[in-house]
Every structure is written in C-alpha cells, then in structure tokens.
Amino acid sequence: MNLLLLIIIPFLTAVVILTAKDFKQSRSIALVGASIQLVLAFFLLNQYQAAKALVQTEAFVFEQSFEWFPSLGIQFLIGVDGISIAMILLTALVVVAGILVSFTMEELHKEFFFLLILLSLGAYGFFISLDIFTLFFFLEVAVIPKFLLIGIWGSGAKQKSAMKLALMLMGGSALIMVGLIGLYYFSNETGNRSFNMLVLAQYPISYAAQLVFFPFLFAGFGVFTALFPFHTWVPDGHSSAPTAASMFLAGISMKLGGYGCLRVATYLMPDAAVHYAPIIITLASIAIIYGAFATLMQTDLKYINAYSSISHCGFVILGIGMLNKTAIVGAVMQMVSHGLMTALFFAAIGMMYQRTHTRLVSQLGGLLKVMPFISSVFVIAGLCSLGLPGFSGFVSEMTVFVGAWQNPNFWYRLATILACASIVVTAVYILRAAGSSVMGPITQKNFLHLTDAQWNEKLAAIVLLSGIVIIGIAPFLLTDLLSSSTDVLVEKIINTF
Amino acid sequence: MTPVGLPHILLLSTALFFIGMFGFFTRRNLITMLMSLELMLNSVNINFVAFNKYLYPQNLSGVFFVIFIITIAAAEAAVAIAIIINLFRSSDSIDVTDAEEMKF
Amino acid sequence: MGLELLFTLKHELLISLSIFLLLFIFVGSNHTKGATIIHIVNALLLISVFFFLFEPKQSFVFNQMFESNGLIQFQKSILSLGLLLISALSFQWLKHHKNVIEFYLLLLSSLLGMFFMISAANMLFFYLGLELATIPLAAAANFDLEKRKSGEAAMKLIYSSAFSSALLLLGISFVYGLTGSLNFTEISEKIPVNALSQFAFILVFSGFAFKMSVVPFHLWTADVYEGAPVPVTAFLSVVSKAAISFVFVQVLFKVFIHLELSYTISLAVVSICTMLLGNLFAMRQENIKRFLAFSSIAQVGYILIALMGSHEVAQSAIIYFLLVYVFSNLAAFGVIGIISNSLGKENISDYKGFYQQNKFLSWALAIALFSLAGVPPTAGFFGKFFLILAAASKGYYLLIVIAALNMIISFYYYLRIVRNIFMETSENPMPQVLVQPITKVALIVCLIGMIVLGLYGPVYEYIAAFAKPF
Amino acid sequence: MQNTNLVLLTLASPLLAFLLLGIFGSSSNWLKKGAGIIGTLLMAVSFFFASQLSLAYFLNQTPNHTQQILFSYTWLQFGSGLSIDMGALLDATSAMMLLVVTFISLMVHVFSLGYMHNDERFASYYAYLGLFTFSMLGLVISANIFQIYMFWELVGVSSFLLIGYYFNKQSAVAAAKKAFIVTRFADLGFLIGILTLGYYGESFDFLTLIGRLSDVQSPQFAAIGVASFAGISALTWGLLLVFMGGAGKSAMFPLHIWLPDAMEGPTPVSALIHAATMVVAGVFLVARLFPIFAIAAPHTLDIIAYIGIFSALFAALIACTQTDIKRVLAYSTMSQIGFMMFALGVSGYGAENGAGFSASLFHLFTHAFFKSLLFLGAGAIIHYVHSNEMEDMGGLRKHMPITHISFLIACLAISGIPPFAGFFSKEAILHAAYQSNPAIYYMALFTSFLTAFYMFRLYFSIFWSTQKAAQDNAHGEGTWSMKIPLILLAIASVLFGFIPFSEYVSTDGKPIATHLDVLFSIAPVTLGVLGILLAKQLYQKASVKPQKIALALGSAYGFVKNKFYIDEVYQYITKKMLFAWVARPAAWIDKNIIDGFYLLLAQLTQFSSVYIKGIQSGKVQAYAMYFFAGILSLASLLFYVLK
Prior knowledge:
The complex is a heterotetramer. By secondary structure, chain B is mostly helical.
C-alpha cells in the first residue's frame, strides 16, 4: 500500500474544507475525510498482515524513500511496522470520534476543522516516518494547530493554557532537535551523514555520545508525553481545549511523545537507555503515583482526566524504562489504550459540559437519570481508566506490570509496586468523580430537562468504545501486531546487556 | 634628531582618532559631532598614506583609498547635514539630546 | 570580451539603467502617474530577479576587483526579489506619495551598492559598495519628512553608520598596513596571525556586525526601524541585512580564514549576546516595527552560530535561511505596512481581534510569524534547522543548546502576536482593510515562498551546489 | 454433550442476558417489561447446564476426582514465556461452586421478579445480575491465576454496580464506592502476589504453578525460596499477598469494613453477592492454591487460621449489637466466612489431614443456601414493613407464615442445630480445628454460641415480640415468585447437610469417609441451644432486659456497637493522612512548585528583559560608546584567550 495516501488524504481534506460554504459542509467534509482515513488505516492493517504472512521479516514494510535534501542526507523516508500501525489506527479512531463530537460549532468552523485535520496530518506523518528529520518535522507540524485550537475555541484561561502548552512543547522540540543533531553527527562518522533511522540503528553512536544525547531526546519526547516534571502543560492545556482538541491532545498528541521515546531515543541509543533506566523508572513512578494523588484533589472533570493522563502516561514511560519485551509491548498497548480511553472520557465530559455548562464535580449530580447514555459512557471510560478487565486499560497495564516485574532488582520492584498501587488511587478518584457527578441526587432542577446524546455523539462514543472493548476482550489481536516489531527493538537492548 | 618615522605618524593618527572619538562621544551639537567623525576619518587617511609611503611604496593603493574615503566622507556629510536640517525643522534644535524620543 | 562583461555586470547594468531612466525621464515630469513608475520599476526588478539563470559563471572584471559567479548572481537576484516584493507590498503607500521617484532612486542606488559590495574582491570596492548601500538608506529613513521620528531615525542611522565606517576603515587600514594589499585573495595569503591582525580583524568585524545588527553593535537598529517608514524598514531589515550577511560569509571564510580561531571565539560570544538580547528586548516591545527589529536581531544570532560551522554547510544554510527570511519577514512587514498606511496603527495591542475583519491579512501575518519562529511546515523551520545543523558540524553543542533555549523565548513573543490576532477580542477591532491586487499577489508569493521553499528540496540543493571549499 | 460446551453455555447465558438487557434494555420497551423473565429464563438455562455438568462430574466418575482442563486458549502472550490463558478448570471445587452459584443466582432472579418489579430500571437490574453471575462463574472455573484476577475484578465491579443500584441515594453510592475501593486495595496485594508467584513459578497457569511450587524438588521452588524480602521468602510474600486479595473479597478483618455498608444494595443482591457467592471467593481462592499453602508454606496457613477465627469472633460480637437486620446478617456472613477461613487454616494436605479443607468447602456450600435464604427472607420482611430496623418489626409470624418458617429453618441451620445443614458443616470444621489447634477450637465454640444467640435475637425480634402498629400491609407476604425461592432454599437448608461432602471434595481428590462423632457434637449443640434460649429469654417478649444488660456492660457495649471504631480508623487514615498529607501536598506542589518553577522561569525572563532595557537608551552617543566598548572587550577577550 502506498503510505503517502495517509498524508495526502488529510491534506486534501484540509484543502477541501477551506472551500466549504457553511458549517454543515465543512463538518461533512471533515467527517468524510476522516472516515476514509479510518478505512484506509484498517486496509493498511490488512495489507500489513498479508505482507507479513508472505515474507517473514521483522523489518519495516511499505517503505518509500524520496530524496529531500540529499546534500544533507535528509530523506523523506516512510514505512510502517506493527507499532506504527497500532498508532495509526488509534489516530484514525480518535480523529473520527473527535469530528463526530464537534457537530455544534458556531463560529470559525472552517478554521476549526482545518486545524483538526492538520493536527491529524502531523500525527499520521509522525507515525509513518522512518527518517528522524521527517519525524521531527511532523511532530512540530502538530504544535501550532494545538495552540490555535486551544486559544481560539477553548474555555477558561484558554490563552494562558495555549501559551503554556505551545511553549513547553516547543521546549520539548528544542531538546529533541539537539538530540537529533547529535545523532546525525555521531553516527556513522566515516560514512555519509543521515537521519535515516535504519542507518542510525545500524551504526549506533558511541557510548559517550549516547550518554550526552539520550537525555535530550528522551526528555524532549517526554515533554510531549507528560514525563514528570515536564507535565505541567497537560492539566491546563487539556482542560482549556475544546472537546475535540482535548481528545486529540490526550488521545494522539501525548502518544507522539511516547512513540518518540521508544522509537527514537531507546531504539537508536540502547546503551544509554540501559544506563539511564533507573532515572527513567524513577520519574515514571513519580509521575504515576504523584499524578494519581494530585488527581484526587481536582474538582473539575477535565482536570481530573488531565491529571489522570499524567499518571497513565507514566505507565508508558515505565514500560519503556523497563527495557524488556513484555514491558515495551505493554507500553505501546498502554499508549493505544490510553489514547482511546482518554478520548472517550473527554468526549463524555464534553457532552456533559455542553448540556450542563459546568464541569465542576460539586455542581453535577445524578446525570445518570437524565442522560443515561452519556453517563454510562462516562462510567465506562472511568472503569477502563481504573483498569477493569474487559477493557483495554486492564490488558495494557497488566502487560506493563508483568514486564516490569521481570526485573528482580529491589528498586525496580518497588517502582512496580508503586505503579500497581496507583490503580487503587485511580479507583478512588474515578469513583469519586463518577459517584458525585453522574450518580447521587440530582443537584440542579434544570438538569431534569436535559437531553441525552445525539446520534453523532453516540456514534463517536461507540467508535471509541469498540476499540477499547475489542482490545480488552481480544488483546492477542494487538499483541500479535506489536510482538514482532518489538522484537527488533528489544534485540538491540539485549545486545547491550 | 631622528627622522620622522612610521611610529610617529601612527601615534599622531591614533591621537587624532581618539580625539575625534572623544568629540563624538561628548559633543551635544550634531554638527560638531559630524566634525569629530571627519577627524576620525582623517586619522584613518593618515594611516593609509603612512602605510603606503613607508611600507608599500611600490604601488599607490593606499593613497587611492584615501581619495575615495575623502569623497565618501563628503557625501556622507552632505546627507547628514540634510538630515540635520530636517531635524531642525521639526524640533528647532540640533542638539543630539533632543533626539532621544525612541528608546528601550 | 564585451559580451562577457555585459553578462557579468548584468544586474548592475540593469539597476543602473533603471536609475538613469528614473533620473532622466521622470524627474521633473509631473504628468506621469506614480503607479506607472512603480509598474515599470517592478518590471525591471522582475527581470533582475531572473537574471541569475543566465550565464552564471565565474569571472573577474575591473582588474580583479569585481567578482561574479553563479552564487553571487543568485544572491543578487535574492536582493532584487526583496526590493521587488517591498515595492509591490507598499504599492498603496507609494502610489499616493509625491516623492515616489526619489524613493526608488534611493533604494535602487542602495541596491546597486549592495551588488557591488557582494561582488567585491577588494577592500576598496567593498567599502565603496558598503557606503553606496548605506548612505541612501539614511536619506530614505527620513522619507516621512514631516514626521519627527523619521528624522531622528535617519540621524541615528547616518551617525552610527559613519562611526562604524570610521572603525571599519581603521581596521582596513591596519589590514593594509599588515599585508600591503587590498585584494581579498592576497590579504588572506599574507595576513599574519598576531595581536595587531586580530585587532584589525575585530575592527573589520565590528563594521559588519554593525550592519548586521549584532549585539553590542546593534543599538541603532530598533530606533531606526521604528522611525523609518515601513518599506524602508523592510528594506533595512531584509535586503540590507541579507546583503551584508552574504558578504560576511565571503569575508570570514575567504579573507580571514587564517584567523579562524579568533573569529570563532568572537562569533561565539556575540552570537550568544545577540540571540539573548534580541529575544529579551523583543519580548517587551509594544510597537510592532520595533518588535520586528529585535526579532530580526535575534535571527542574526542564529546566522552567527551557523558561521562557526564547517564552511560548505554554513554557507548554503545561511543563504537558504536568508532566502526564506526574505519571504517571511517581508510578508510580515507587508501586512504591517498595509495596516500602518491605511489605519496608522503600529502597536501590537492594536492587532487584538484582527482576525475578525481581515482574514487573509491575519493568516499572512500569522504564517509569516510562524516562519520566523521556525515552525513547520513553513520554510523557516528548515532554515533554522539547517543553521543549527551547520553550527553543530564543528561540535559546538553548547551553543546549539543555547540557541534552542532562545528559540523558546522567541516562540513566546511570536505567539503573543498570533494570540492577539486570533484569540483576543476587541471592542472595536480594525476594520476591513482594502488590499491592492498587486500587493495581494506579492503576499501570496511570499506565502508560497514560505511554504514551498521548505517542502521542495531542490531549492536548497540548488544553493548547496554552489557551496564549495574556500 | 461435551463438558467444554456445557461450561461455555453455562457462562454464555448470563452474559447474553447482560448484553441483551444492558445494551437494548433502556431503549426497547418490550425488553424493559420482559427483562425479568428473560433474565430468569437465561439463568435457568445456565443452571440447567451447570447442574448437568456438576452432577455428571460428581456422579459418573471414579471415586478419585481428577482435575480436568476443559479448554485453554492463549489470550494474552507476554514476552517472557508467561501468558494469560483463558480456560476452564473442572475439579470438585469448581463443579460444586458452579452448582451453588447458578442455583443461588437462579433463586435470586426468581425472587427479584416480585421484589423489584416496580422498579423503573428493571432491565438494568437484571443486566447487572447477569454480569455478576457471568463473572462469578468465570471466576470459579478459572484455570489461570490471572484469569481469576480478571473475573475477580469483574465481580467487584458488578458488586459496585449493584450496591450502587439506587444511585440517587447518597449512602448507596458511598457504600458502593467503599466496597469497590477496599476490595481494590486488597486486590493490589493479590496482583503483586500473582506477579511474584508467576515470576518465580514461570507460569500463571494454576496446575503448572501448583505443580511447580508445591514440588520441593523443582527449580522454581528453589528460586522462590531463595528470593526474599525483609527476611521473608518470596513464596510467603506471594501467598500472603494473594491471601490479602482473598481477605478483601471475603471481608476478613481488617478489610471487612465494606461488607456491612454494602447492604445498601437491593436485598436480593445482598443475598446473591454478599452472602452466598462473591464473598466466599476468598475462601475459594485459598482453596484453589491450597496445595502450595499446605505443602510449601504451612506457616502461612497459621496466619490465615488466626485471621479467620479472629474475624469470626469479632463479627459475631458486633452482630449481637446491631439493630439493622441486614447488618446483623452481614456480620454473621463475615463470621461464617471466618469459620471457613480458619478451617482452611487448620487443614493439612492429603487424605485425612485435609479434613479441614473439605469442611471449609462444605460449610461454604451449606452456608450459601441458608444465608441466601436468610437474606431473601429479610428481603421479604423489608418488602413488607418498608424498614430495615428491628424496632419497626415484631410479631410478623402470623402475617408471613412461609417467610417465618423458612427463616426459622435458616436460623437453626446457621446455629448448628441438628439435623439442619449447618450442623454438619460446622461440626466438621470444629472437628478439624479441635484436632489441629485447640485454642482456635475454643474460640470457635464460643463464636458458635454467639451465632446462635444473635440469630435468634434477630428471629425473635422480628417474628415474636410485640406487633408494631403500621403493619397491616395490603400487599401481604409477597408474590409467589418471592415465596418459591424461600421454600426451595429452606428445603436445601434442611437436606444438604446429609450429603457426604468430603467424599467428593478433598485436597487431593481422594474421598475421605464422613463420620459423625456424637460425643464431640454435644458441646457445640448444647452451646447453640443455650444461645437460642438466651435469645428467647431476652427477646421473645418486648422487655427492657436487653437495655439493662447493655447498660451494665457500659462502654464495652458501645465499643462493640460502634464496630470497634474500625471505620473511624480507616476514615482517619484515608481522609486525614492520605488526603491531607499526600494528595493535597501533591496537588499543591504541582500547582505551586513545579508549575511555579516554569512560571518563575518565565518571570525571570520577563524581569531580565525589563532590567536590561536601559541599554537601549535612545542616545546615539551612548550607542557609539557601546559599540566601542564591544570592540574593546572582544579584543581583550581575544588577547586573553589567545595569549
């Protein structure tokens, strides 16, 4: 399959949106574009599996290479493996759902959908890039749409949040840039310089150079995935963003960081990853447990989900830091799972907010009675978040735990126990949120006249929910996809040990 | 009595340069500042001529350079004076401290 | 020989021709409409832009004082493009201006000076070109004759530049004293490495630094940018800066190659100062022109760190960056000029709610700012990345980290304006502004340039093909 | 039919009920009305298949009851050779549990037809019941320790949903949350225990795991014995942590606090989940891993035994003071599970040594029937008087004859009066305890006296005493759908004691002959009768005697009535310590220190920006001076650096 389609279709969609005449047109165009992309993503999955069945190889497939800046050794190199396909599927699902929940936009609708699609384009490009310059390019492409989406259509202290988010993400990008350049100059010092990930992996940079540049790359991508202590953009950014943007931010954008930590930092600098693993794990455990406790004190539903995202993304980092196959597979599963789950959560919160005009837990109550569908979705998202079997959260967290437990070192075990303990805290805050917002007595009279979800909102929830449930019930589908691709990563690390 | 050598001339030109610079830094009158600048340029001229005369007498590139400097200094002065006149029109002053409106 | 001379000097000849045309045909003829003159000059400049495609080969004329080759011709075309865009973008302002001929005379003379400066292979020629480029600009800065700020700006420009010329000349005189030659090649062969030569180098360096607005030689920049009319500011900020940067690359890599250690140290110090001070000052500005002045100072800092890298990468990265910079900065100045001219508003806070009425201008300005900030998919991203890549080629990673941190600060203030445009709402936002068709075309060209230059790799490759070991 | 299919069908029908009613129940009117019937029918189908399976297993096999893996499917493959396999493990324990769960669930389904029929979320109710039954069945047939953990969690969440069924009631929501969070905390231990056992045993599969860890020769056993933390071997840690999970679900002290509050749910739910099935999951779990406990780490069993007997006694004491009938029953449940736990604790492995094991499961079996009977009876009573408080009841025996008789049977059964079911199972437990640990035996004896006392306190207060005014209820005792389950369960409570249980269920699958030691039975039965008589004396007629006794006991009584203030201790730990000392500072640090750091960076930048603005003074001469100063400093830098 031609992977370029994954970039071209969002691009065309974005362009066509600009010609839309009214809101209905722009949203339909966006929806159609996103749906095509979703179909394409599944087609890609199918093709990938067919290709894998044909040739038993662990390398990337559907590779395509275009010279971009040959004198600098920069290529436009794309290709996919199981991990990227999982992320692409996630993106496609979240994008469709995100557009479905944005059916009531009054002003500047063209711009809104344009930016949404542009953001998704950045994510797709990021996930298919095999050249780290290309990857970095797409990573940054996605920053500005986030800034504008939050700042223009957001709520609350939206400008401050948008600024904070953009600046911190740019800070992350700046760190990544330093790391990339280090890789570029220290790898393959005698041969031609290149940003090609496959070449860089083949000629790993020296140990000393790895020690210098690994922190840049890992922390840089860490900013995107809310690595402690670079996470403070998350609560404000997520809560100020409009619903669809929150979904994109938490569901896709944070995954860019996790994917980068894994694919770029850890894959290309395995020695340094081993060296820094204790620090990574410490930070991840802090993020997990501290994020969870900080969530306990939040009163705004979006803040609750945002802080819980910090905690959940900590699992991703933890899994990567543990550096064994199970944990890394778990980390990727957690990325997919968290992406779907948090998007669903934000969607539900958005639907509730749209109707009740409040997100404060103390002002909500008893919504299960007036809007059973939305409330159920909210509760289900919560249950997924606290790792209930049958939903994706469980399998991914358990995979991380089992992987993390493989290392008998006392401190690693302690980190794992702390991570496990966070699921109890998660249960506490999820149940507190659900208990007082959708359950309990109805707090305000006017809630009684509210309506339940529209068809589009239902569809959005179902799209995400089906992803969550399918992974939750048949995780082997996902692990089969990830397994062989993870082997490639892990082999390099094992050689290091 | 030693003949006048390159060091003497360089000393002179250096002195002249710094006198010009001092004038440029301290004078308040724009015209005087312009004159100080001319002083600095002239010291450079002396440098060129001296280097040409004492070190590289085989060609005249230094001297030519001086001629160009003089010409350009004149052009510069012309434009500067035109600007000063215009400034004087709008603020009735040719004091440099009256032209500090834009700052920070 | 004659034909070859013609080809070598084609840019200069065309510009001279334009100047004479203006001088002898239009001066004094009151019945010619401003718009006609503008169109004629634009057409001539357009030709000049495409000149680089014809016979771009290495040649020397004027007794080895004037050099021309493909790269230099390309650079000249970039400068012509800059002026062309400025001319088109300020069409509205120029059309009704009574001194339109003088405006063109001054800027074309300056452009001609720049061409000579770029082609110079000799200190004398370089000095002549430099002065020819600078002096008309001082006059042009005073173009708003009735505005006091304009006069002040012009005064500051001419005094500062005269002062810097004096120091530059002192430096050149020392260089002459040390080598006995004014020819670049000879100087580079003969120049010794000692205290005096280093001092001479610093003096020459300061002359360049002044024109490029490198901290601490930059102090004139903001005042002049603020006071001068927008098109002149744009010219100063883009064309003039690009020209001197082109020469700076040549002079550093060609003439002072034996002083590499000295210039690397100097560059390291001033580049950090430049990025930092430029950014810190830019953060706080209220006047948008002054803001762009400081932001352009900060941009120069990135060019400086690239200069420390290995020569081939550095040269092509800088030229590429400047090409991108022409488009981005001119788009920004274009929008600002339109607003300043039709509404007289030049403050950042005036741009609150700008998007409500002026969608196209808002997007143009925003994309220009993104490009300046170095955000993909705009070409500014590539420009900046390549600069930093060049800087790293000799392993100055600490500088890269500092540059990266500075990029975050710069990001803050560029976004601040974007925030005003899109996110703030205003009681009385700026009304819809009429944009002349030619101006619109110019803006679109800028936008296309900003997007395509990065995504379309061959542009960079074209430049890189010129880069050769010095 | 194949056993595999039978198991699958048994599980599939309640799941189908859940999906059908859960997804479409709220939208389709038809389903809303017929939810009860559909749910009950599907449950009946499930019961039918389960009983076929179990009976076939028990009756048609050789006396040695083997463990069979009916099917196994690799569900989640971990990289390190570990995997979660979804499978079904059929042995005596799971076959017995299948029967119990499906039967009780069916009874509850039937009972709820009458009890809940006016409820507006009727469909959801049956959906949740279906989900619970499915999860519980999945739990009991689990062939993999991770599988059991998954169903364990699902059981927890369906319990949450059912306790919080009346979600508009603040107290119900609070109780549901409490139940979920406390058991979740216990599950944390369970999870870490699983990870530990799985890591060292190199498998999550029950049979493999048990085989390796209970085999002293195996390398895995050696590894887990060597690894230790805080001086205790990893095996002990693993087992104790797994037990912690079990203790949470089974409401063992000190993780019992959720159970009394869980009575906020609809009463039939309490009968199903919090009396007969889910709460015994802990016992089931220990029984599942029993070979490892008994062979590899017998000292852990001592801990289990002491926790069990302490909980039994502790709960029985509290039960004597409670006035809410469901809470009395809840504490009695806790107490009875304590019996089961310590029975496991005092048991050994193999043949006669394993008598405690069989006794424990026997008690689990009989208890399920009479306890759910008690709860359903309580449900009928509450349905009738619309109150949970004993004071609002009294003299109901004439109004509710069937309820009265069945309740009496259940009370006799739980008090261990022959020939009711409880007598046999309790007898077996006491016998096992007596042989292994007399201290436990005496405490158990005292507890069984208390049991008889508080049960009959309940009985007399409800059915005798004085009749309260507001009881001329129009709707009578209830529909037949409510009465039939009572009758059936009462019959079971009478008859099932006669099953020679230990011949079917034992530690190693080899039957143990049952025997009744009449001499041994004198003490417990006498104490039971004494308890009944004491209760009769105090409560048959309304009198002030109980109050007098309570006053006489003074603060000790208050201490017990307030449940030993355990709830308050938890409140203190969570609210005062975790919230005030961990969560609040975490949120504060995040907002002020970490975010503040970035803010500080921004402000420092702003500040320095303002601080240096004087450089740009607007004076052209100053500019020139800076210019020259720049040259001088660069020059001196170069001279300095380059000598």
